[in-house]
Design a protein that fits this description.
single chain; 10 helices; 2 domains; mainly alpha; 267 residues
Length: 267
């Protein structure tokens, strides 16, 4: 029972943070406050009372509908809450009640929020990227982390590398396919949100984590969304795939890099 107590409590907190994450991913991309107004039904504008705002449970009890007007409530809400709760429970089960568990849950929650925002709005809010970078450096002072200096350097490298990739990518696209960016309604091959996101990632996983995140994220984006982008001429929501790769880099980065340096490079 003692072994399961911490993950269970962490999971309950994760459900609450998942509920707040829903609000952040819907309001921050539209530059709206997450404090006011209170949560309300988008159709009838009835404020949602506290007993109808219990993570996951309220959605199930109300059968996914507004209590007043019976309009459907997106299944995104309970799914995000449940996923965040499981994420928190799993991280604390792995690391125990430690500073590293807190650092990991914060990082993974931010990545999850970025993925949702970028998938839905093609926007990565600064609150996630810039605010997350500040948290990354601050949490690096906790025992078990990468250290504040590695966090700071990782953030700088993450920003610089993706900024350079964006600049070179823009020039290459303009040379190979003139007008492609104009058709997509953008002026650069990579948005500033992706660049600032990698700054945040670097503060949590360091330089090697940045390299692994960019590599895995690029491969995933090309394999999963590349064909869709080619046919529809839509730009790839890279933040979604960088978020997934960042989670992999955090959880299994060291074993992957060790395998690569010993088995592939032969070091």
């Amino acid at each position: 029972m003692v072994e399961w107590f911490v993950p269970v409590v962490a999971g309950l907190f994760g459900l609450l943070f998942g509920s707040f994450l829903n609000v952040c991913t819907l309001r921050w991309p539209k530059e709206e406050s997450v404090v006011t107004p209170d949560s309300r039904c988008p159709k009838c504008q009835e404020p949602i009372r506290w007993f109808d705002n219990v993570p996951v449970l309220s959605w199930i009890v109300l059968r996914g509908r507004c209590r007043r007007c019976s309009s459907p409530v997106s299944i995104q809400y309970p799914l995000v809450e449940l996923a965040t709760g499981l994420m928190w429970a799993g991280t604390f089960a792995t690391h125990g009640a430690t500073g590293e568990a807190l650092r990991g849950t914060v990082f993974l929650t931010i990545l999850f929020g970025i993925a949702i925002s970028d998938a839905r709005f093609y926007i990565i809010p600064d609150e996630f990227s810039v605010g997350g970078s500040v948290l990354g450096v601050a949490l690096a002072f906790l025992p078990g982390g990468i250290g504040w200096l590695d966090a700071f350097i990782g953030g700088a490298v993450g920003f610089a590398v993706l900024w350079l990739v964006g600049v070179l990518g823009t020039k290459l696209i303009c040379k190979i396919s003139p007008g492609r960016l104009e058709e997509a309604g953008v002026d650069q091959a990579m948005g500033g949100g992706d660049v600032k996101m990698m700054m945040m990632v670097g503060t949590f996983v360091g330089i090697w984590g940045v390299a692994l995140t960019i590599f895995l994220g690029s491969v995933l984006a090309l394999l999963v969304f590349g064909p869709v982008s080619t046919m529809s001429k839509r730009l790839i929501p890279l933040g979604v795939f960088l978020a997934a790769a960042g989670a992999v880099a955090y959880q299994w980065g060291e074993p992957i890099i060790d395998w690569y340096t010993t088995s592939v490079v032969g070091m």
